[in-house]
Every structure is written in C-alpha cells, then in structure tokens.
C-alpha cells in the first residue's frame, strides 16, 4: 500500500486539508470545450498517477506500451490528436481514460497474454477519447466518490478484489453501458486496421471474466451487481466484441497476436505488491516494513493490499485502512472534513489510545444504495507528527453489535514494528517459461510462489479456462 501524504479509500488528504474527489462539482452546466476537457485531463493526470502508485520505472516497457498505442492512433480518424499513454505501477487490473490520457496498470499487463490483447485494451480506452465520452461524463459530473462506493460495497455481496478495485477508482469517470459498447466497437476496428487479430479484445475480456470469477470463488462472494460495476457485464461485452470481431476479420489484413514478443517484454515484471516498500499481508496481518507498522484484521476477513488502502472484507462489513497528513486532532478530523466528505454526521465521538498514541472514534449512519441503512465507524489515530492512520468501518446495521468487539480489537492491534525483526517475503515477478516434454499443469504450477490455489492461479494467469493441459513448446507465465 502506498499512502504518503494522502488518504485514499475514504477521502483525499493534502497538506492544506481534505478535498473533494477530483472534478466533483467543478464543471459548468454547458460542459467543457475540447480545450477545457484537455486542460482538466492535464489537471487530473498527476492525481491519477499518485493514486495508482506512480508510473513504472522501466523505460523499455513504457516505450513498448506507448509504441503499441501509436500503432492504433496512426490508423484512427484523429492520428494527430495528442494523447499520452501512461503505465501505472499498480497491481490492480485496470485501464482508464481522461481527455488526452490513456492509462494501463502493471496488473493489467500481467494478465494480458499477447500484444494484440494489450492493443485491444488501449483501443477501447482510445475509443472513449475519440467518442468524447470523457468530456460528456465530465459535463454530467459523473465522477466516482468513495463515500458512495464504500457504503455500497459494505452491504452487497461483492468480491473482495472487485471491492478493492472500486476503492482504487476514486478518480475514474463512470461510463454508461452504451458508451462502453461504443468503445469496444472502436477498439475492435482499430485492432483490425492496425493489423492485429480483432478477436484479441474479446479474448482479454474473457480472461478478465475468468479472473473475476476466480476471485469471487476463493473469497466466497457472489458476482457484483452489474449496475455497481465501473464497466458493463464482462460476459455480455465478450459476446458483442466477438461478434464485431468476426464482422471485421475478413478484411484481408494479416491478423497478428504477437504473443511471444509480448511475453518477452513482461518477463521479470513485478507481480503484486513490493513487500518492502508497499507492505504485505501474512494471514490476517498487514505489515509495512517501510512505515514500521502492523495491524491484525478480524479472523475470517479477507484482506487485499491496494495502492490506496488496505481492505478487509467480511460477510457484513468492510474496513479500509489508510493514512493522511493533518495537524488536526483525531476528533476534529472525524467531525469536520471526514464527516463532510462522506456525508455522514458522526456522534458518540470518544477518545482512546493505541500503542501510546491518541486516537478518536465516531459513529454514524448512512443510507446505502438500495435503501439499506448501514453503520459507519471511523477510528483515527495520530501516529507521528501530522501522520494519521484511519480505520474506516462500514457494517450492516443488524451486524454491527456482534462485530464490535472484533472491530475494536483490530484497531487496538495497530503497533510499531522493528523492520530488522520482520522476515520480508521476496517480491514476486512474472517469469516466462517454455513448456517441455513431461511438464504438466501441476508441475508448472508447483514452480510458482503462490501460497494457495496454485493450479487455478496458473490457469487464470495464462487464460486457460479448461485448465486441463499444456502444450510442449508453448510459452507460459509463472510467478516466482
């Protein structure tokens, strides 16, 4: 988790205080011109980069991804439109667009299995720009705000990683189903015009669906309601993208996948978090060597470490742990900027101490999507100087009383650690291997460093839905 000088997951913090999610309430009735939209894109760009852990440091990989995007832009109707492509150093699988900007994450590069699949993703995001979807959404003020997201996910059976992904998307523009389908269409046509296999876009969407279903399976959650997603239902998009690809595939242009060159580019790519600098999860404990802190989540809760927050999710509750810079007292943070950001009035504000530090907690209620009333409990601890740590708990109203002892025990577990006494696991990286005679799914999966579900994770990573065999000579991705 990267959280220096900001609070992400509930509110955004800066040295001057807490601010609204980017763009909220900042647009006029008439909407922006192209120039205004591009200016807003430039304004929000550094916030996107910061929210997703910065840009990757590998210049060769950055240049490669930019080159793929340039191929698509060259065959578009607006080849001279200035668009910057950024690879974000985040393990979350995502891509997004703002006016003048396209973003893909390191996590997305790990899941893709060919250059054509990557091109399909970039083509889709270019579609949002070329169709001016970003400007239209800015005009309508449809920027995600974390208060609605957090309160929504606490009361619905969303998969843990879906929840984590939504929490990371504070800045993302929300596109309609129609706009998503339009962008899929643009992406497929750009793929074909650039010489890529247009079916690759549908293949990546299918891989994304396979990944999502697996995460839901292992966390015991059901699929998220489509209307809560930032994109339309993946299976429906696969069908539409595949149908469109079949229509344009007969153009006579050589359809390239460029699988092996792509895998060579992502070989040794960091997979997941860097445990030393971003912290790591061990069992139900979060440990951050660089910040010298640790805490323990309630037993039975599933945890995820994202660039914005550490998330712990149970059947009827969710917690986000983040940090902020503020000179205010914990109680003032709760009753002032936090209450304003979440739209919740907090009462029963009380003082407590954790590991010798002063803290405060509050209690409030909010109405979730669907009308359900939920309990919202912030716990703010002033740790050192102006650094504050926030546990933000949201729980179903009928479950709060039973969960309260676990909630308070988790907050009380926040503690100092000596990094020298912590055994930090090595960072995981993608390793491309060639299947040899005698190799099996089981033997290849056994070579990975996954802690559990080795075969299943191997098949998801390599987009093998049947998960029953490998072919001698093919390239596969391992995580070591």
Features:
single chain; 480 residues; alpha+beta; Protein Transport Mog1p, Chain A; Membrane-bound Lytic Murein Transglycosylase D, Chain A; 3 domains; seven-stranded antiparallel sheet; four-stranded antiparallel sheet; globular; disordered N terminus
Which percent bin holds the helix content?
A: 25-40%
Low-confidence stretches: 1-31, 142-173, 223-230
Count of separate structural domains: 3
* End-to-end distance: 21 Å
| Proportion of strand residues | 15-25%
Strand order within the widest beta sheet: 10-11-12-16-15-14-13
CA gyration radius, whole angstroms: 22 Å
What count of helical segments does DSSP give? 16
Gist?
The chain is α+β, with helices and mostly antiparallel strands and 480 residues long. The chain is built from 16 helices and 19 strands.
